[in-house]
Amino acid sequence: MSRLGKYTRRAFLGLGVAAAGGLAVGYYFYQKPYANPLDAKKAEGETPFNPYVMIDADNTITIIAPRAEMGQGVHTTLAALVAEELEVPLEQVKVEHGPSSPAYFNAALLEDGTPFPFYDESVLAELARGSMKIVAKFLGINATGGSTSTTDAFVKMREAGYAARYVLIKAAEEHFGTTKDNLIVADATITEKSSGKSVTYGELASKAVAISPPTEMKLKKASDWKILGKSQDRVELKDKVTGGRIFGIDMQLPDMLYGTVRMAPRKGVSLKSYDKTAALAIPGVKDVVEIKTATGEGLGIIAENTWAAFQGSQALVIEWDDPLTLQNSDQMWNALETALTKEATFELGGTGSDPEVFASIPEKETLSAQYRVPFLAHATMEPMNATAQHEGDTIYIWTGTQAPGLVQSAVASHFDMDSADIDITTTRLGGGFGRRLEVDFSLYAAVIAKATAPYPVKVTWTREEDTQHDTYRPMAIAEIKGQITPSGTLKTFDMHVASPSIVKSVMARTFPGLSPVGPDNSVLDGAFNQPLDAENQRYQAHVSDLLVPVGFWRSVGNSVNGFFHESFMDEAAHKAGVDPVEFRLAQMTNDEFMPAREVLKRVAEISGWGTPLPAGKGRGVAHVLSFGTWTAQVVQVDVTDETVTIEEVWAVADPGIVLDPGLFKDQIMSGINFGLSQAFGEEITWSDGEVEQANFDTFDAMRMYQAPKITVEVLENSPKMGGAGEPGTPPSTPALANAIFAATGKRIRQMPLSNEIDFI
Amino acid sequence: MYPKQNLTVNGQTKEIEADPEMPLLWALRDILDIKGPKFGCGIAACGACTVMIDGEAVRSCVQPVGDVTGAITTIEGISQGDELHAVQQAWVKHSVPQCGYCQSGQIMAAVALLEEIPDPTDEDISDAMTNLCRCGTYPKIRAAIKDAAQALGA
Question: In this record, what's one Pfam family (chain A) (predicted)?
Answer without folding.
Answer: MoCoBD_2
